[in-house]
Every structure is written in structure tokens, then in C-alpha cells.
Amino acid sequence: MNFAEGDKVVTETIDIVTASVVKYMIKNHSTLTAAESCTGGMVCQTITGVSGASGMFTGGVCCYSEEMKMKLLGVRKETLERYTVYSEQTASEMSAGAMKMFGADFAVGITGLAGPGGGTEDKPVGTVYISVRGREREIVRRLNLYEEYEDLTRGRIRQITTLKAMQMVCELCKIPES
Q1: pLDDT tens track for 16-28
Q2: What is the pTM of this model?
Q3: Burial bucket for residue 5 (CB in 10 Å: 0-12, 13-18, 19+)
């Protein structure tokens, strides 16, 4: 599979998984929100690309700076200082803040390094943290995309992260991926 074919497969899979999430949320009278950093609104764009999403998507926020993460989402300064902006703890506080801000039943929080610069030996480009939460449960993961995929570009990291986030919503809610 060449790079273009791989992007098409990822895009089609994102659409299928997201449609399952939207259908589930509407059927169960549930709402979803997202707080995004490195994906730059791609999760929100993907959700709102599904017909009927207005019945379950309350809104989302793209918080790129640490200041806005603290101001809008309630990410604690102590969290950023101790764990950095690229951490499970920050992703978790982002999803909690979005859930509260938008009054949603479920939330996604994403932070990471989409590159091409900014990576370190400890956290190379392609290191992403995703938190998916409901009122009673949360899943938080560190994705080491640089270990799993070749030819990672900024766009590809954003796409794969969006797909992984939607798959994690399916996992949390026990939604079968169609």
C-alpha cells in the first residue's frame, strides 16, 4: 500500500467509526465534546461531517497554548509544570474541562507532538496522548505513532490520532465498529 492509499483507508475508516459514534450517541440520548490541541479541530470536523451530528455534538475547543488550556479547560499549572503539556495528565484534564464546559456526557482530550519539529528523545514527534471519558469511566493512552507507522507527516499524525480517538470512544461506550 502506498502513502496515498494508506491515507484513503485511514480517512474512510475515520468516517465509518465516527458514523457509528454519532449513531450510538443519538440512539442513547448522549452528548459528546472534544478538546483538541495537536489535531487542530480535526475530531470536531470529523464528527460534524456526519449527518445528524447536531443531535449529539455539543461543541468543542481547539486549545493550542498552555495559557488557553488553563484558562478555558481548567488544566492546572502544576500539571503542566510537573508532567508537561504532552502528558496523560494534561489530556485527562483537557477532557474533564471540555466535559464541564460543554455539559456533555462524553469527552475527548488530545495533546501531542504532530511535528515536524518539537520532539525530544523522550517524546519524539508522533507521541500523542488521548483521554476519552464518560461520567463514570476514563481511558487515557499514550500513542507512540512513530513506532507503528512509517512516513509520518503532520497531517498523517493528525488523521491517525483522530481515528484512534474515535476508536477509543467506541471502546469506552462498547460501540461495535461497523
Answers
A1: 999 999 999 999 9
A2: 0.94
A3: exposed
